[in-house]
DNA sequence: CGCTTACTTCAGAATTTTGTGAAGTTAAGG
DNA sequence: CCTTAACTTCACAAAATTCTGAAGTAAGCG
């Protein structure tokens, strides 16, 4: 292990907390944000519940809650080491930001609410027309995001190799 | 005014509250979400502070706070009717979702935090490499979003005319 | 000028959210 | 089977946030 590669726990912690703070500002809950940042900055890309609790100074209950949220939103995955009841949580490196970008369920619900708005306020009213346009925008974005992620994969390969 | 265009206050209110609830779920604060939904579903696309307070049953203080937030994030604009100190708040129809999409300041800060992470954890460590890749992703997205919005304007014109 | 209307700011009450300890559940290991 | 380790759930205390009423500021109007 080179000097550059030796991890300074304080530097790691500084980064974890400052990156987590940015995620919080973007609307993420505090504990999930901290847990996620810790995983992101771990060399293996995985940590156990105990390691997370120790680094972040939080209770097992807090780890459990944060991890459940992160798994539900596909930001991390859970792995069971065979023949053990210790779990490992992993950032999927190239998949978590796809989860971030792909808010499909959310957009679908917005679209539902807007469609309802168009029909209940009347498609022939100014407000109804405004909502129909907004709806068209979301439908457009939905299609574009998929194409963008495909271009990213190509771009990524060019930058970092296969 | 046709029957279809006559506004049923209860239908409007139902839509406002349900759309606001979706915005809240996406991370927006409650009052800004309700105020924004009310503006979006108004025929004129503008409302005064008094109208907002009455429809949403909230105090002038709450209107003031919500509107300040919405103006800061470019979701609505404030207009002064000349020769009056009554203000009108307006959804810019085709601009608010651009504001939603264009989280440039946010992304810039994420990039800053990640750059710091790469250098403090070491560009030659596994964690550093993971963060460098994440950083590249955000840089990529930044460029793509601008192009996507340009395509939207073209698409929009095709759907709704100039 | 002063009155009045419209918005803003601020302190605090009320609500909501968050994180903990403790008890509960599950499954490995003896 | 029984013990114990690992995670989960739950009730509650603490902390943070939200919204209000009241006081403050500014600008039109007489």
TrEMBL record, chains A, B:
Keyword Transmembrane helix recorded: no
InterPro entries linked to this entry: HTH-GbsR_regulator, HTH_MarR-typ, WH-like_DNA-bd_sf, WH_DNA-bd_sf
Keyword annotations from UniProtKB, A to Z: DNA-binding, Transcription, Transcription regulation
GO molecular function annotations of the record: DNA binding; DNA-binding transcription factor activity
The HTH marR-type domain, residue ranges: 27-87
Entries under SUPFAM superfamilies matching the protein: Winged helix' DNA-binding domain (SSF46785)
Keyword Secreted: no
Coiled coil (UniProt feature): none
PANTHER family: HTH-TYPE TRANSCRIPTIONAL REGULATOR MJ1563-RELATED, HTH-TYPE TRANSCRIPTIONAL REGULATOR MMPR5
Name the UniProt record assigns to this protein: MarR family transcriptional regulator
């Amino acid at each position: 292990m080179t000097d550059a590669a030796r991890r300074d726990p304080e530097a790691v912690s500084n980064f974890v907390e400052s990156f987590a703070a940015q995620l919080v500002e973007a609307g993420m809950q505090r504990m999930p944000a901290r847990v996620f940042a810790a995983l992101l900055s771990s060399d293996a890309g995985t940590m156990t519940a105990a390691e997370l609790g120790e680094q972040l100074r939080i209770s097992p209950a807090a780890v459990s809650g944060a991890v459940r949220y992160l798994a539900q939103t596909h930001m991390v995955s859970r792995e069971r080491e065979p023949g053990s009841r210790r779990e490992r949580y992993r950032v999927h490196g190239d998949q978590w930001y796809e989860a971030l970008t792909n808010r499909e369920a959310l957009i679908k619900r917005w679209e539902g609410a807007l469609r309802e708005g168009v029909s209940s306020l009347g498609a022939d009213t100014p407000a109804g027309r405004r909502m129909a346009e907004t709806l068209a925008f979301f439908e457009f974005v939905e299609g574009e995001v998929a194409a963008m992620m495909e271009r990213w994969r190509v771009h990524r390969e060019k930058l970092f190799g296969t």
